[in-house]
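Structure in, sequence out. Go:
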């Protein structure tokens, strides 16, 4: 039985990854932050599942700044694979607290690399990087060799972490990989992100629970994919004979207004009747033309997206509509 350690297991990607690994017969050890106000809502169904009786899912409350505790955990579990997904992932919030963003996202990754290197048998390690490392890119589309040019504190922190993963691979001969992820969404996306904000607002407006939605630049563009597809790529990346970095993306750009048209249109609403502009939601430095090239993932991992942009948006709207109906009825 393979053993895996997953940081950020209670988030969108972590919960999908835990499901995948458990389905493949892994013993999964998830790290959650000590004294974190966040709940384990996204993995509650796993904690209550029959496989828990066979002790294949464990949670460990450890601060990622606590190197001795992490070292003890690694020595106890002896993981075959480590998936480092934890981090301050909201780009907008990184401008408000750049120090904390860099401490958690950049230095947190370096600590994980050091802890893994200290193991007698170093586990394979995957770090989830971000398209934000490219920021204002020198080429379109972006691939694994595109120079980094971040335009946000989050992008800078991720660039540092991504390069450290590469350095540990090349200098210390560790099996370390970067999954360079472009934006990816699902019904499990936190409500602070614009994508979920849109689908939730559309559902609430349809049910008469809200009347307006305040947004920033509706012409902002991103390459948006489906989170479970990307998680499938994470696992495939660590199963290769040789470590490498891979971009996970769709290769297609969409605007925020595309989310609005599909989400509101699915509910027979005209989004322009409900959306108002609020400058507080505009990015201080908005990346341009971030769209990924997935040739390496296709060739080496036989990976490609399986869910279309339109289907993903509709799935999220349906999910939020069901949630709001249940809350209204209770």
């Amino acid at each position: 039985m393979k053993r895996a350690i997953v940081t950020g297991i209670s988030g969108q990607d972590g919960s999908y990854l835990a499901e995948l690994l458990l389905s493949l017969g892994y013993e999964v050890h998830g790290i959650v932050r000590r004294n974190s106000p966040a709940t384990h809502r996204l993995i509650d169904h796993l904690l209550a599942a029959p496989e828990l009786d066979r002790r294949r899912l464990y949670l460990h409350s450890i601060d990622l700044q606590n190197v001795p505790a992490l070292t003890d955990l690694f020595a106890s579990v002896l993981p075959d694979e480590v998936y480092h997904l934890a981090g301050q992932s909201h780009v907008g919030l990184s401008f408000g607290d750049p120090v904390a963003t860099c401490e958690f996202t950049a230095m947190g990754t370096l600590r994980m690399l050091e802890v893994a290197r200290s193991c007698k048998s170093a586990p394979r390690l995957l770090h989830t990087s971000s398209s934000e490392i490219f920021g204002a890119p020198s080429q379109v589309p972006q691939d694994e060799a595109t120079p980094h040019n971040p335009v946000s504190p989050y992008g800078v922190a991720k660039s540092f972490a991504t390069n450290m993963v590469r350095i540990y691979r090349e200098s210390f001969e560790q099996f370390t990989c970067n999954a360079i992820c472009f934006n990816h969404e699902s019904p499990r996306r936190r409500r602070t992100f614009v994508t979920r904000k849109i689908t939730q607002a559309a559902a609430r407006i349809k049910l008469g629970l809200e009347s307006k939605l305040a947004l920033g630049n509706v012409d902002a563009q991103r390459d948006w994919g489906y989170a479970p597809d990307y998680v499938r790529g994470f696992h495939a990346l660590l199963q290769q004979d040789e470590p490498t970095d891979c971009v996970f993306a769709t290769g297609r750009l969409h605007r925020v207004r595309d989310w609005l048209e599909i989400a509101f249109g699915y509910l027979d609403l005209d989004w322009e009747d409900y959306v108002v502009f609020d400058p507080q939601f505009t990015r201080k430095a908005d990346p341009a033309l971030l769209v990924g090239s997935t040739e390496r993932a296709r060739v080496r991992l036989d990976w490609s997206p399986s869910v279309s942009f339109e289907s993903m948006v509709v799935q999220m709207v349906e999910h939020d509509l069901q949630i709001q109906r249940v809350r209204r009825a209770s």
